[in-house]
Amino acid sequence: MSEAGFRLLDVSVIHASELRKNYGDFAAVDGISFDVAPGESFGLLGPNGAGKSTTMRMIGGTLLRTSGTLEVLGLDPETRGPEVRASLGVVPQSDNLDEELRARDNLIVYGRYFGLPLSYLKPKADELLEFAQLTEKANAKVNSLSGGMKRRLTIARGLVNEPRVLLLDEPTTGLDPQARHILWDRLFRLKEQGVTLVVTTHFMDEAEQLCDRLVVMDHGQIVAEGSPSSLIKQYSSREVAEVRFGSERNAAMVDELRDLAGRIEVLPDRILMYADDGEGLLEEVHRRGLNPVTSLVRRSSLEDVFLRLTGRSLID
After folding, report:
1. Rg value, the chain, Cα
2. How high does pLDDT run on average in the chain?
3. Which fold has domain 3-227?
């Protein structure tokens, strides 16, 4: 589906127009507009404090908006909150499982909040534990599970009501690389089943892996929108050469390098040089006898897009 197609309101499962949330004079979300299509994996990318979690809470109907329009599955979550939440799955930023209950019981108890019968919940819990690769941990108390297992159980819990939309707020924060990849695989499987995913993250590799389309947020505003590949193509070069001359020399070396690349960014620990041919650029750096302490060439990422748009790193 084209990006234009994603914006058609008659296919949107989420529609936001000039959505705003103020706390006094502070605008946590500052007039943003976007649409999410059925079955899409849609991302909100930005650093901590960008307004991502606030936006998610308004979508979930747990936070009142200050102004603007918001529709989830054609309903206003403020006035039709119970109906909206019945069709949503929510994976919060921090796991809030019942540590004293067993893994399987966490799913069953949570399902009872939706009024679901035990005749449905017992087999559903087993199905979700298998999906989350936790069948062998069904009778283990949550406080004995690893961080990655808890995260998968939290996602399984969010699926107990068979939601049409799954909201995931920073789903892999605090997980090691192996646990992150296992979680990504589970989310890919959900997407293949037609579940709409809305993901907030400040990890650019996660956004590139999971999202069909995303918005880049900063200071409560949307500063760019598109697929990961289209954003990289629009706002960055094909490759990036990273060079380090030492923290005391980096800034002083910029004038020596400026004519080699169309764009240069100076970070505290390294210099980023943007070019279509990163290896050729590095060869020229060495031919000039500049000899960085370390150097590497990589492809451009969403981190470079964010740096271009905001002048700061996602991890600032």
Report:
1. 22
2. 91
3. Rossmann fold (3.40.50)
The answer to whether residue 312 scores a pLDDT higher than 80 is: no
Q: Which of 84-93, 184-193, 285-294, 306-315 has the lowest mean pLDDT?
A: 306-315
Question: pTM for the complete prediction?
Answer: 0.86
d(CA 52, CA 74): 21
**Domain segments of the chain: what residues?**
3-227, 237-299
Flag whether pLDDT at 147 surpasses 60. Answer: yes
Could you give the dihedral angle defined by the CA atoms of residues 253, 258, 263 and 265, in that order, rounded to the nearest 10 degrees?
10
Q: What is the pLDDT of residue 203?
A: 85
Give residues with Cβ within 8 angstroms of 28, minimum separation 6. 21, 22, 51, 54, 220
Tokens 């695989």, residue located: 185
Distance CA 138, CA 129 (A): 7
Q: What element of type H or E holds 293? A: none
Residues 73/51, Cβ–Cβ less than 8 Å: no
Distance CA 170, CA 153 (A): 15
Place of tokens 């999971």: 210
Please give the structure tokens belonging to residue 41.
């994996």
Distance in angstroms (rounded) separating the CA atoms of residues 187 and 101: 25
- Fold of domain 237-299: Alpha-Beta Plaits (3.30.70)
Counting every residue, how long is the chain? Answer: 316
**Number of Cα atoms under 13 Å in the Cβ half of residue 296:** 4
Strands (E), 178-289: 196-201, 213-218, 221-226, 239-244, 263-266, 271-275
